[in-house]
Design brief:
236 residues; alpha/beta
Length: 236
């Protein structure tokens, strides 16, 4: 579903070699030290950052030259990208049509997406009057109405407390299974990867490694870079 082979990204003195293939319908976590290039990897897939060499393939198509809006994916950021002056329903409707000219079927789609993430009762509430978790649910509902096959999550729940973060991760995992999305998620929390990811892509030392099964990643304590990253962390 996503393939970047023998590619190179360069920005000033920063270089990132990328050799990543993510299977269709999988959930891949991106882990690594701060500043290693995890978010940059997502930005390359999304089309916000160009490669020095190599190409990006999504669903078998070369999208390297396509702008972000033309790539078959949705990206969810930590700040959830809500518009403060618009209510939750309208924020989600923007994912269907930026003009907000929706037909009846499209309106029903928005209603169903809000119901699926538990926001029906808050549809006319503005983001400023909602909790952090509720605002992130707006982003998830918008992801549903866009219905793109690939979902990129850039630390979307980092600002949430442990309990709410676990709840939101479970929600994303359920949506991924229901819709068959291919999900790539950047996180600083190893426990998040352990909880929901099928595989882990490790980014460190200027290299984005091919994803490996989650269990294998956490068992690889003989790998110096992984061991150094995980330090004393242990799965609870």
């Amino acid at each position: 579903m996503i393939r970047i082979e023998q590619a190179l990204y360069v920005y000033g003195d920063f270089r990132l070699a990328i050799d990543v293939a993510v299977p269709r319908g999988s959930f891949t976590a991106v882990l690594g030290p701060s500043g290693a290039g995890k978010s940059t990897l997502l930005a390359i897939i999304a089309g916000f950052e160009p490669l020095r060499r190599g190409k990006v393939e999504v669903a078998g198509a070369d999208v390297t030259a396509l702008p972000p809006a033309q790539r078959p994916l949705t990206m969810v950021f930590q700040d959830n990208n809500t518009f403060a002056h618009l209510d939750a329903w309208t924020n989600v409707a923007l994912g269907v049509a930026p003009s907000l000219r929706l037909d009846e079927a499209q309106r029903q789609m928005v209603d169903e997406a809000l119901a699926r993430v538990g926001l029906s009762a808050l549809a006319r509430r503005k983001p400023g009057d909602m909790s952090g978790g509720e605002r992130q649910r707006i982003a998830l509902a918008r992801m549903l109405v866009r219905n793109r096959p690939v979902v990129l999550l850039d630390e979307p729940f980092a600002a949430l407390g442990p309990g709410l973060r676990a709840e939101m991760l479970a929600e994303v995992k359920d949506l991924q299974r229901e819709r068959g999305f291919t999900v790539v998620m950047v996180t600083h929390q190893p426990e998040d990867a352990r909880a929901v990811a099928d595989a882990v892509c490790f980014v460190a030392g200027g290299v984005a490694r091919p994803p490996v099964a989650t269990a294998a990643f956490f068992a690889a304590r003989n790998d110096a870079a992984i061991a150094d990253y995980l330090g004393g962390w242990r799965d609870s």
